Amino acid sequence: MCLAIPAKVVSVKEDKARVDFGEGVLREVSVTLVDAKIGDYVLVHAGYAIQVLDEKEALETIRLWNEILEAEVKTQKN
Amino acid sequence: MAQKMKFRDPQLAKRIAEKIHKLAPRQRNVKICHVCGTHEWTITHFGIRSLLPTNVEVIAGPGCPVCTVPASEIDEAVQLASKGVVVACFGDVLRVPGSKMSLLDAKAEGADVRIVYSVSDAVRMAEKESNKEFGFFAIGFETTAPSTAAEIMHEPPENLSFLVSHRLIPPAMKLLVEMKDLSLNGLIAPGHVSTIIGLQPYEVLPKLYYMPTVVAGFEPLDVLFGVYMILKQLQEGKPRLENEYTRAVRWEGNTKAQEVMAKVFGIADGGWRGIGTIPSSKLKLHDEYVAHDAHLKHNVKVEHGVDIQPGCSCHLIIIGKIRPTECPLFMKTCTPQKPVGACMVSIEGTCRIWAKTINTLRK
To answer: Which numeric CATH code is attached to A5-77?
Structure first.
């Protein structure tokens, strides 16, 4: 139920947007609850976009993970 | 996202698992609870538990909004359907047992029960068939409640009313922490609920209960890092609130959704299947919107229902006290095809997830 799927916004018309879930699955969802523009990735839950995903933060998370793991390797070497 | 697969990188997972093994305390057990069906799916599907040290246990709390709907509210939906009202509901809830029957049983007996993907579908249906009365069975946590609120605010068709059964997660998390016999050492907060409510509602957990709390995403590496962050907090002896899912969860959450929810709903004490009443955990329509309340419009009210069928252990599984495999009915009389308890019904129910994984392993 609380499952939310990321999708890319293809077009926006008033409070509705056409989003691409990948592999050709397109659907109209409501964007009343978010400020989404074309090209954004949104999390879609039960026909509503509930949040805009932050690509910068996604990359930052991966960077942080690697940093934590690298720190471990360095400590071992020392 | 170009980096999507990185969130499932097996090499990274192996390395973080090694780090978790080093960080885990030697002398005592650690019990971490999550409260989201999707987390349970990730953990079970990707075998996360097998990567953890034996003394680090991750248990599933009441994170399935379908499983936690009390039987009395299913009975109300059945009652609504029996009055000739078309009941629109999410697919998950269709087979959840009520005291005597599920919505699917009611449908088999001729009631008009329809599955919708979204509350907007119910609105469209009601507009199209204006000669019929419709009732939307609004279940779900904070992730789903804003969509119901948004439709109610935008003047839905007169022939559509709402059976509001939304629940709130932070009061349930507080209850889990207060259950001393569960002896929790950390909480993984649900990522998608948090996209709406933000981090503030969880602040009380580390502040008042000294409980390490981490909001985590739903990829396997998200969960593993969530566990790592909790273990790190325990090692440092500094319980705090951290956000691992920064790509979707902001500190303030989705303020637009919060405003819509607050405008339409007030908060009341609510019953949870197998748990009982949790204070301030249910949403109810504000007086301004009671005209949309299906209870009043169609005079449906069920005070008490039979939540747990004889032999069923859903009340223990839902709070993580026992594992599905410890229930005497699991995969014997209670199967995904013929569920006895609510936890075996929804794809986010702990028993259903475990049943599916066991079947996959057997193949």
So the answer is: 2.30.30.140
